[in-house]
């Protein structure tokens, strides 16, 4: 059988592999971005008013993150099974086939979304639409680990594709808005229709390219390994990789707590926030591009402990990151205080501070995940049982840990924000502030308790057979 034959197989160009990984990153995030960018159109399509958009987006996003974690755990399990000595020789085939199946399922998920929107009568399909968006979260998590472990040297381009995907989608939406307006077409249906087609086209192209790369570059006889033939044990890999896992997990788990729920939404009127969101989307693409240039042209893809130790100073970006995080939360609670007067309802100040916060978080995240493989691939340890499988396992495990942190902070912060909004509404109607007269430590424990209770309640609420009861609650 040719698959296990030692005869030479013609490989595709490395640039094609890089392009396919880039497009895979772009395709994986499109259904998730459909929730943020397309839910307004979807809610109108299913016959609901603007007041249902916020609850729908929040519930879907929280559940997508949960299923993303499940997908990453699933990929970790497949990676571990493929590392068992009795099947280890087929590891490349197992992980390659697994990632190809996920790419096909991603395209099928987009087709299903298109059919649900196109054949919808009233709100009959909204619950199926909800569960398909949640399935996209699972596929995103599974695809992420599958592609990164199959082509680890191109991991930075996968991240770049994810970041530039949002920017490309924004440009596409701007163009389609002008076209549909000129045609006097119904904006709600046709914008959603073309956005799903955009995601479908990218998933088809990326899936075909990825299948070609896996079959011709990964399958076949063993090839010389790039980056040496080290055989590290798992503890050695963890020792070298934990700073990068920490950079990735801390940034991923922190950045989307304050952004955009607090900054800019709680600090500015709604009409002043849209520019900030669009510029942050561009900033994400810029930071990913800078990370890619540093990786490929400035040695960031080399072992940092050797001649590139200065890259560890990237962690200093956490100083403005966490300073601004707590500043935003403090100003949200004390808008009339001395610091609040300098920031609250000042568009220019909020714009600049939010960009600094967002760039610091995203850049450290991208550098952490982009440099991880470079710093663990040549690790040398005393053991020999794990081999290269331990490197692949740690790559996937990093995504799992990051998603666990993100999921925990997301539900905790959503519970806290719901309690804060309720307290603010009560204050406007004449009720006392819940932490009035409490010391700082007691007030902190109160809001933390609200976050835990509200987060657990929200986590239970996403398991619904009828999303209509949730968004109209």
TrEMBL record:
Keywords: Membrane, Transmembrane, Transmembrane helix. The chain crosses the membrane at residues 98-117, 129-145, 157-180, 192-216, 244-262, 309-331, 343-360, 394-413. This is Uncharacterized protein. The lineage of its organism: Eukaryota, Sar, Alveolata, Apicomplexa, Aconoidasida.
């Amino acid at each position: 059988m040719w698959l296990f034959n030692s005869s030479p197989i013609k490989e595709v160009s490395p640039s094609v592999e890089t392009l396919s990984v880039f497009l895979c990153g772009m395709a994986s995030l499109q259904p998730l971005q459909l929730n943020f960018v397309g839910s307004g159109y979807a809610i109108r399509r299913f016959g609901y008013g603007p007041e249902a958009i916020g609850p729908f987006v929040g519930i879907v996003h929280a559940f997508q993150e949960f299923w993303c974690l499940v997908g990453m755990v699933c990929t970790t399990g497949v990676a571990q099974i493929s590392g068992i000595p009795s099947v280890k020789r087929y590891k490349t085939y197992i992980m390659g086939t697994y990632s190809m199946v996920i790419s096909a399922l991603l395209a099928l998920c987009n087709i299903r979304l298109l059919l649900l929107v196109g054949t919808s009568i009233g709100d009959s399909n909204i619950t199926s639409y909800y569960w398909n968006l949640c399935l996209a979260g699972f596929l995103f998590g599974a695809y992420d680990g599958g592609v990164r472990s199959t082509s680890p040297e191109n991991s930075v381009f996968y991240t770049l594709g994810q970041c530039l995907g949002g920017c490309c989608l924004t440009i596409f939406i701007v163009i389609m808005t002008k076209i549909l307006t000129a045609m006097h077409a119904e904006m709600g249906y046709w914008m959603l229709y073309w956005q799903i087609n955009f995601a479908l086209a990218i998933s088809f192209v990326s899936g075909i390219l990825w299948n070609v790369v896996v079959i011709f570059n990964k399958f076949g006889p063993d090839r010389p390994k790039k980056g040496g033939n080290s055989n590290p044990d798992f503890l050695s890999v963890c020792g070298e990789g934990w700073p990068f896992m920490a950079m990735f997990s801390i940034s991923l788990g922190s950045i989307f707590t304050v952004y955009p729920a607090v900054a800019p939404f709680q600090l500015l009127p709604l009409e002043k926030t849209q520019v900030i969101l669009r510029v942050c989307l561009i900033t994400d693409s810029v930071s990913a591009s800078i990370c890619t240039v540093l990786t490929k042209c400035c040695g960031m893809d080399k072992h940092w402990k050797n001649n590139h130790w200065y890259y560890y100073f990237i962690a200093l970006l956490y100083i403005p990151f966490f300073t601004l995080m707590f500043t935003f939360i403090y100003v949200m609670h004390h808008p009339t205080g001395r610091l609040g007067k300098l920031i609250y309802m000042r568009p220019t100040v909020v714009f600049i501070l939010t960009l600094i916060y967002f760039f610091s978080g995203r850049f450290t995240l991208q550098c952490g995940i982009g440099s991880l493989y470079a710093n663990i691939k040549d690790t040398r340890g005393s053991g020999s049982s794990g081999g290269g499988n331990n490197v692949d396992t740690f790559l996937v495990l990093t995504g799992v840990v990051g998603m666990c942190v993100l999921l925990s902070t997301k539900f905790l912060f959503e519970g806290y924000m719901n309690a804060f909004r309720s307290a603010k509404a009560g204050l406007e109607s004449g009720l006392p502030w819940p932490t009035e007269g409490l010391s700082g430590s007691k007030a902190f424990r109160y809001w933390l308790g609200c976050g835990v209770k509200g987060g657990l309640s929200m986590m239970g609420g996403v398991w619904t057979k009828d999303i209509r009861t949730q968004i109209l609650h």
